[in-house]
Amino acid sequence: MKLFVTIASAGLLLVAVSASAHHSFSAEFDIDKPLTLEGTLTQWEMINPHSWFHIDVTNPDGEVVPWMIEGGSPNQLIRMGVTQNTIPVGTLIVIEGYHARDGTNTAVGRNFTLPDGTRLFLSGSAPQ
Amino acid sequence: MNHRLFVSGHLVAALLMMGLVGATPVRAQSPDSSPANAYTPPRTPDGQPDLQGFWTNSTYTPLERPDGVTTEFYTPEGVAETEARAGAREAEQTVPGTIPDVHYDFTQFGLDRSQTTMARSLRTSLIVDPPDGRMPAMTEEGRRRVARREEEARLRGGRWDSAENNQLDDRCLIMRTAGPPMLNTSYNSNYQIVQAPGYVMILVEMIHDVRIIPLDGRPRPNPRVRKWMGTSRGRWEADTLVVETSGFNGKNPFNGSSENMSVIERFTRIDDDTILYNFTIDDESTWTQPWSAGLSMKKIQGPIFEHACHEGNYSMYNTLVGARLEEQLAAEEAAKQEPN
Known about the structure:
Oligomer: heterodimer
Distance between the termini of chain A: 35 Å
Number of strands of chain B: 10
Number of domains of chain B: 1
Shape of chain B: globular
Structural class of chain B: alpha+beta
Number of helices of chain B: 5
CATH architecture of chain A: Beta Barrel
Number of strands of chain A: 6
Radius of gyration of chain B: 22 Å
Distance between the termini of chain B: 72 Å
Largest sheet of chain B: 10 strands, antiparallel
Largest sheet of chain A: 5 strands, mixed, barrel
Helix content of chain B: 10-25%
Strand order of the largest sheet of chain A: 2-3-4-6-5
Helix content of chain A: under 10%
Number of helices of chain A: 2
């Protein structure tokens, strides 16, 4: 597992949404600090208004660092059958997102995938 | 009852009889379909028309008719196109490094409306009266009030200066799904209706607000009693639940309204899966005339899930801390620029 803190490549296919939301994400997270994290899920707080994914990321020097990643309201995931059992603790996930302005190990997860590139939740189908 | 509302309520009923198509699912819009007349809703044990169950008012139809649209209805092809466009906006791939990109992906969490049950309509706006599909002009008093509120907000400081300066939904106090009028928000626009003898209860998923509506004609409380969602009184007119609400506290203005706003809502179950929901707003101190809108509530599978917003609202802390840090960095930068 590695920690990548990179400027996101413009060539990547990045998926995100500008839909109206509960609060201003750009006030919470730093547009100038995009990052990619790969780590092991240790806890998934399925709470409102936003779910939080806790992952352990292993730095190149072997140090294990806990991160908290903000995701969407869990209600619709639960409604579609996605639960904490679907994505069990211990799952290795890759998260692209933006670092919190306060510099703590907190980020918003723009895109959640498994290491093989599969999107984390089955619900991730864009409308046709 | 307020005379303006009384007149307007009947006008809306007439409009909806003529234009029921607008708030009815697309599939029920064949010319020979007249669900409002043909359908008899089931009854509760105490004889009320049964509205109970789980419902959503999720829709892509906007409250007001969009600029450049001049017709009351889209063609089926036209509405499909606008829905696809709206869906694409919710799922769009944004440009890295832009503000809209600082977010989680709605489609991953199933929060885009196209992944949920949704009320479909050919209408170009939820507003049916005035006929132009737009809210009526504001009165001078209404404009002054809006300007005064903006000035008060300015004097309180920036949005991130304090928790109190955040928006009501940022603070997990109330969202627009609660109403009345109950309007959809971008996700979790879900409700549960439960009826008991003499009461209708509406549980709103967002913030888990609850409306308890007595049907026994009891008097209203002292007008000095003011509430976030007002005080509601209900009655049945044939198979339609009519709910009149006033006594708002003015802290959650609806599109500029005052605490004097009155709302009349009408709930009519028009088939097993649909409740027609219409409302008329009257606030003489804000708008030059009452105005009315309608949408459908579609049946969904329960249960409602708790939306305990405040206890999980880490975002408030993160945002305020981030703002203080930005201020500190800016101050340090400014200090560097000052001549010694």
